[in-house]
Design a protein that fits this description.
alpha/beta, Rossmann fold, 2 domains, 7-stranded mixed β-sheet, 16 strands, 20% strand
Length: 397
């Protein structure tokens, strides 16, 4: 019996490393499944999980290991809730890395309170606050969406080109809204435009007529709404249309979502000019095919950026040869940028194989990924209008 026990123990010791090697790698998906952007979050999550599934089923990831996506709710706007969700991902679900968070305030809280203390790499597909450029992240935070420092300048240029020289601005009262409002106002005024009034609005109110009345009193005919499509931003637009306060609206990425058209309808036709991160080309076309097959809308805000965020984490692990948290961040920039063979959507398996064989890759993904500075996305923007009851892309910048 003693010999049998010794033999069994020895066999267990010999097989334990092999069994450990087969354990799935967990990647967190920390997005606002509830809150002011909940209508666009399902497509973002589905896109990230599409990249995870692609890598997991390839058989090429870390010698054949599989990957699990673990969802958690950031709520977008509740920093405490986002932090609690991230803590569960790290301590209970033992994720190797996190796609997210989504909204800038939530991301700031998670970087400071969870990612840095635990050495967890995060890639946000949608946190755009300029303040995140200088956050003390110990090299652990990246984003596939460009900073609002650039989006504000793009919007300002568009308005001046269209001879819109005076505007009022309302913004959601958080890091995202303030950062975008400041970058836009600065750029607009440098180009000769005038911001006649700037006012924050709070999300969650039933009536925004008082806010709209104050903005209209500025004398502006055009209103820039830097808010959320499922919250105060929509309420501001509806109240403006109800009273005839403004003749046109300027939207940014937070207002790009089909739910506002479903809620308001044809009244928006011809009244909206906006921007949202977006790209065109072969990668985008391929992603649209993949998304259609997977059952989600590739045109949803930040879907492409979500796919790219998940793919970058996976490819960085492969480059590191490990899913250990400590080794992931230092390989993100290398797989995201030249030199190396370009890898687009649907080609993650090829990228994994090249890295496994000691080669180099340049992941361009859906959005033409190029990370600059401290993990910032260079990024391009789609310019859109609302026509015939739908968002229509008119150009890319």
């Amino acid at each position: 019996m003693k010999k049998l026990l010794i033999a069994t123990a020895a066999a267990a010791l010999m097989t334990a490393p092999a069994l450990a090697q087969e354990e799935p790698v967990n990647i967190g998906i920390l997005l606002g499944f509830t809150g002011p952007i909940e209508s666009i979050t399902p497509a973002m999550a589905a896109a990230a999980e599409l990249a995870i599934q692609e890598a997991s089923e390839s058989g090429q990831f870390l010698g054949g290991r599989t990957i699990n996506a673990v969802r958690a709710d950031s709520t977008c706007v509740d920093a405490a809730a986002a932090t609690a969700s991230a803590e569960r991902l790290v301590t209970v679900d033992n994720v190797a890395a996190i796609v997210g968070a989504d909204c800038s305030g939530a991301t700031t809280a998670v970087v400071n309170n969870i990612a840095v203390p635990n050495g967890v790499t995060m890639i946000s597909p949608s946190s755009t606050s300029p303040a995140l450029t200088t956050i003390d992240d110990r090299g652990l935070f990246f984003r596939t969406a460009p900073s609002d420092a650039r989006q504000g300048a793009v919007i300002a240029e568009l308005l001046i080109e269209r001879e819109i020289n005076e505007v009022a601005v309302t913004y959601t009262n958080n890091d995202y809204g303030r950062g975008l409002s400041e970058s836009f106002s600065r750029a607009f005024e440098e180009l000769g435009g005038r911001v006649l009034m700037t006012a924050a609005h709070e999300d969650g109110r039933a009536d925004y007529s008082a806010e709209v009345g104050a903005l209209a009193a500025s004398g502006a005919q055009h209103l820039a709404v830097f808010g959320y499509v499922d919250q105060g931003g929509r309420g501001i637009v509806q109240a403006s249309l109800d009273t005839g306060a403004f003749e046109s609206f300027i939207f940014a990425d937070g207002m790009f979502g089909g739910s506002i058209i479903e809620a308001i309808g044809s009244e928006l036709d011809g009244t909206v000019l906006g921007t949202a991160p977006g790209s065109e080309g072969e990668g985008r076309a391929r992603f649209e095919e993949m998304a259609s097959a997977a059952g989600f809308n590739a045109a949803t805000s930040y879907a492409g950026e979500s796919y790219d965020a998940a793919a970058l984490l996976i490819l960085a692990m492969q480059a590191a040869g490990s899913a250990d948290r400590a080794s992931i961040a230092e390989h993100v920039m290398a797989v995201a940028n030249a030199p190396g063979e370009q890898i687009g959507p649907g080609e993650i398996a090829r990228g994994l194989e090249i890295l496994a064989n000691g080669g180099e890759i340049d992941f361009v993904g859906v959005t033409g990924v190029e990370l600059i500075g401290p993990g910032e996305a260079a990024g391009t923007y789609r310019v859109y209008e609302v026509q015939d009851g739908a968002f229509q892309t008119i150009e890319f910048r």
